[in-house]
Structures are given as C-alpha cells and as structure tokens.
Amino acid sequence: MITKQSIIEAYKWRHACKEFIAGQKISEEEIKFLLDTISLSPSSFGLQPYDVFVLSNQELLKELHPHMWGAQKQLFSASHVLMFAARKDVTVDDDYFHYVMRDIQQAPAEVVELYTGLVKEHQLREVKISESSRYLVEWAAKQAYIALGNLMTAAAMIAIDSCPVEGFISDEINQILLEHQVLDPEKYQIAVFCFLGYRLNEPVRPKTRRPIENLVKFIN
C-alpha cells in the first residue's frame, strides 16, 4: 500500500541528477510503466497537445551534444533520453483536434460540437492565439510539463533518477532533428528534455525549499 510518507520520501529522494551510471539500463517493464504515467497524465480538454520522443540513436545524440549545454554529462550517461515536443496543430481547425475527439475519445457528434466551441473560445479568450501563434505553442508546452512532473514523481517512487533540462540551443537542435527526419520545426516546438537513469553520486548538498508558510498563501 502506498502511504503518504512514502510519497513524501520519494519527493525528498528525487533530485536533478547531473550524471548517471553509464551503461546501467532501466528495464523495459519499468520504462513502459513510466511512459504509461505520461500517457495517463491530464491535459487541457484531454487533447495531449504534445508528442514524446525517446532518443536512443547514438549518432544523433553525438550531434546534439554540443548544443545541449544543460546536459553535457546526462546525455551519454542516462539510460533513456526523452524529448517532449509541443504540437503546433492543436486548434479546432486542425485535423489533430478532430482525430482526438473522434478516434481517441470516441465522442459523439454533439459532444464534439460542444467541445469545438469550448476549445475555440478558450484558445481565443484565455490563450489569446489570435494575438500570436506563440501563445498556442506555450499552451501546448504547459500540458507537456504536467506529464513531465508526473513522470519524474513516478520515477522517484520506483527509485529511478531523472533530470529535466531546458538548457539547449533550439535552432541548432531543430536543424539536426530535421536532418535526421525526427522532428519538423514547422509542426513542433521542443518544450523540454528529461533524462532517466540511476545516479552515479549522491547529491552534494541537501535539498532546500522555501518554507510552506512562505510559499503557500491562504486566502480566507
């Protein structure tokens, strides 16, 4: 049985692992479990407006390495490299929206009609996609971060280390991925990388966080 204390202990144990034990691989069973936590994560309207790429091609990783300043040690020592990419085709006018509604959620026509109106209004009013297409991608990336958080928590609970990384040069990374036919920058924007594996060393410093009373504001 999972206890509240075991969850807290997993959070305390987790840290941004800067270097993993090279060659120590996460089992296929555990990777499937972790990918399931991504798949089952919530997203706005259940649209999952992002894709996750598991990068294992060593030649590709070597080309990416000079442009991944935030992951110089993680890139080659991690067991698995995950890349979360926000989709750019996630308005109600795009095929992707109707694919999710029809084929994934199997929603009846009246529900699709309702959701079409709700999503369109939300994206125009709150996301403000009419002002800039960048806002749509940022909204999609936010959904990816929800899945990222769930992934890292689930990993910590089964003693697998992780490290999220935003430290990369987008233009160079995009060009390499395009040349390798991995990702088309016209259709995706990379949100974040996540490296998974087993820590080589324990953290040098203890985990520090703001006190709850300083972090959380109760408005009565």
UniProtKB/TrEMBL annotation:
Its cofactor is FMN. Residues 12-177 form the Nitroreductase domain. One of its GO terms (molecular function) is oxidoreductase activity. Keywords: Flavoprotein, FMN, NADP, Oxidoreductase. InterPro entries: NfsB-like, Nitroreductase, Nitroreductase-like. Belongs to the nitroreductase family. This is NAD(P)H-dependent oxidoreductase.
